[in-house]
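sry for the spam today, last one i promise. struct tokens for design, 688 residues
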């Protein structure tokens, strides 16, 4: 692909007085919360941010907060040396940097919870156990926090940052002042006027300029609108705020949208700035009436708001929201936005910008919007990526040539097997991949059929890994069963077994009935049709035809069962999920994905039963025992099993002693998700 296709995206730009080498930016999303020492920057953080500079990004953001327990900060001069060293490393690659200044406000643990106003449980815009405990920030604290952040900005400049970004988005502290849903104050920072609501941020812009210098750039990240929220920021207000920030001295605007979804329990997420999640599993009715672009499953959904802001200001506008290089090029070329935020794309592939510049689009590891990165960080852990096992482990997982080159045989072409083959080959090993089917991808093909292409696009992972193992020189042998004779004939030094897990089938009467479709049977049927028409045709076909009756009972309420229920509900089936355990949706990501899917299933009339043990399948349907010990018949035309896999070490005995080094990875060792399989493959290939 010619790099000229992206000449606008690759063109230099400028924010304030800082030149930016291209329009691809990696904004300041946090990489997680591992142990750190007294607020000092740790190598984990700096390696993470430097990786994006090495990968070609034009601008890179790093977050800092004064709140204890949130991460590293710039509260004292002693913190400067490590940060300065990080910025020197980033600048060596030609990238500019900014420090993001934020305060999570109502998200702080009690007694530190603070917001523009103290709201009752009935008034609070989102559910959350701590939010009603938020105290209103007094004017004296506002003034002190402004001075504090001014000092942080001055220290940031000495630490090598080129500019600062004020995070007034989400429902963090600054954002609660902008929104009438949060701000009930009647003082000079109150809800009475746009000028009063924006005063906190306007004064902070001035203080940063005063302490760090007028030539120290300031970006303001703010919600351009809050659709779905009563008294939330309107699109018109978002444009007016943009003009106010520009007049106050802001050098660029980062335009984002916070969509409120109104969940029902304290554990749920009520709002999100991820457009793909805001529109999942289906576009909410109210979202069809707002200015968002809902036609591409979230890709570029917030751009109409950014475009409207661009029309009323003269400073650069940064667009965000599931953007990619192709759409970014179009938007920059048309003057809709000036810079393109590619956060999750760059997490999936740190070299994203370089590969775009070099015309190597086919080599880009795909972000499939699985939300693993966000969910892990929000749960207090370190960032993880489904396709990029190096994310958050850049130094630990640096790819090094093998000391001793070996003959490696990988059995199975699922995500674990292909990633192991890819990394082992890149390290210099001679790798042969054996796959008994005529196609690659293993269980990802079944997952793609169930999930569809609306959001996660699992087949992009299959395409990427397939192309990469071939480019790395892996000898791929399809339609080849890994018998002992076949493997021994390759004279391997190392054998890596990644054949997937074993399907679980309930041992109850009636499972041989024609109305039962087990996960194993579905898998075999899928393989048959995959051989005939390929995975992409299958994902389209099941949207118009499914070999199941009108009333479907799904045995298994983990991620497998819930996602199967989503597919069937969208196809108009009457669905009941039966889960023997106490939790529905185990395996689904707790942040955004699980609550949204379970609520959507509930709204679609899907019956979800926990503590329900299958007893038998009869002519009427599925018989279960309930938590109370009662017996119940659930009418069904079709019973589908969608249970977690079990480990399958069936090849262990057959391949015993065929090589001096044996590894079992992925689902055959311990069933998990794609992120676990890829991590397994990446780890074992680095250990060979």
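last one done:
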């Amino acid at each position: 692909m010619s790099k000229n296709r992206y000449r606008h995206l690759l063109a230099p730009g400028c924010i304030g007085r800082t030149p930016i080498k291209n329009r691809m930016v990696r904004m300041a999303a946090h990489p997680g919360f591992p142990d750190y020492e007294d607020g000092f920057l740790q190598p984990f953080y700096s390696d993470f941010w430097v990786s994006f500079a090495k990968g070609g990004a034009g601008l890179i953001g790093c977050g800092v907060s004064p709140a204890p327990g949130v991460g590293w900060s710039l509260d004292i001069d002693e913190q400067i040396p490590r940060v300065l060293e990080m910025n020197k490393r980033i600048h060596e690659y030609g990238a500019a940097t900014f420090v993001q200044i934020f305060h999570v406000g109502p998200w702080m643990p009690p007694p530190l919870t603070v917001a523009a106003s103290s709201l009752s449980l009935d008034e609070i815009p989102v559910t959350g156990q701590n939010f009603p405990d938020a105290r209103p920030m007094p004017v004296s604290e506002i003034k002190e926090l402004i001075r504090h952040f001014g000092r942080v900005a001055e220290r940031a400049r000495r630490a090598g940052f080129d500019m600062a970004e004020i995070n007034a988005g989400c429902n963090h502290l600054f954002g609660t002042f902008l929104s009438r849903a949060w701000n009930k104050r009647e003082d000079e920072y109150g809800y009475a006027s746009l000028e009063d609501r924006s005063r906190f941020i306007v004064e902070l812009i001035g203080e940063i300029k005063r302490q760090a210098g007028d030539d120290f750039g300031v970006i303001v990240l703010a919600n351009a609108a809050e659709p779905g929220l009563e008294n939330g920021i309107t699109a018109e207000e978002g444009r007016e705020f943009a003009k106010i920030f520009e007049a106050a001295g802001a050098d660029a605007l980062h335009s984002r949208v916070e969509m409120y979804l109104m969940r029902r329990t304290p554990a749920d997420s009520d709002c999100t700035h991820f457009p793909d999640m805001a529109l999942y599993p289906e576009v909410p009715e109210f979202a069809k009436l707002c200015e968002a672009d809902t036609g591409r499953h979230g890709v570029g959904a917030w751009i109409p708001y950014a475009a409207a802001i661009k029309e009323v200001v003269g400073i650069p506008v940064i667009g965000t929201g599931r953007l990619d290089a192709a759409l970014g090029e179009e938007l920059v070329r048309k003057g809709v936005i000036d810079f393109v935020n590619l956060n999750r794309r760059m997490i999936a592939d740190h070299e994203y910008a370089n590969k775009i510049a070099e015309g190597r689009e086919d080599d880009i590891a795909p972000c499939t919007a699985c939300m693993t990165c966000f969910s892990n960080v929000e749960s207090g852990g370190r960032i993880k990526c489904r396709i990029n096992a190096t994310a958050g482990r850049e130094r630990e997982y640096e790819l090094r040539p093998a000391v001793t080159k070996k003959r490696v045989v990988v059995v199975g072409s699922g995500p674990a097997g292909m990633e192991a083959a890819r990394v082992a080959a890149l390290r210099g090993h001679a790798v042969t991949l054996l796959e008994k089917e005529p196609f690659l991808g293993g269980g990802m093909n079944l997952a793609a059929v169930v999930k569809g292409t609306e959001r996660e696009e699992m087949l992009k992972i299959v395409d990427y890994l397939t192309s990469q193992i071939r480019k790395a020189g892996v000898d791929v042998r399809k339609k080849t069963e890994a018998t002992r004779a076949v493997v021994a004939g390759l004279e391997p030094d190392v054998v890596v077994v990644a054949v997937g897990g074993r399907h679980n089938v309930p041992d109850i009467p009636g499972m041989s009935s024609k109305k039962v479709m087990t996960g194993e049977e579905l898998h075999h049927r899928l393989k048959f049709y995959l051989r005939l028409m390929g995975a992409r045709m299958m994902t389209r076909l099941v949207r118009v035809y499914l070999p199941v009756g009108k009333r479907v009972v799904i045995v298994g309420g983990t991620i497998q069962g819930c996602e199967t229920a989503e597919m069937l509900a969208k196809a108009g089936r009457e669905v009941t999920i039966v889960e023997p355990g106490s939790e529905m949706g185990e395996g689904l990501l707790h942040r955004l994905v699980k609550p949204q899917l379970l609520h959507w299933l509930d709204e679609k009339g899907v019956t979800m039963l926990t503590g329900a043990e299958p007893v038998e399948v009869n002519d009427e349907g599925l018989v279960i025992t309930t938590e109370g010990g009662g017996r119940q018949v659930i009418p069904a035309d079709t019973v589908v099993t969608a249970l977690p896999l079990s480990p399958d070490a069936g090849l262990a005995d057959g391949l015993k002693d065929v090589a001096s080094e044996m590894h079992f990875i992925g689902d055959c060792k311990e069933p998990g998700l794609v992120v676990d399989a890829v991590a397994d493959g990446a780890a074992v290939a680095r250990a060979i």
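The first strand starts at residue 13 and ends at 15. ok im logging off now
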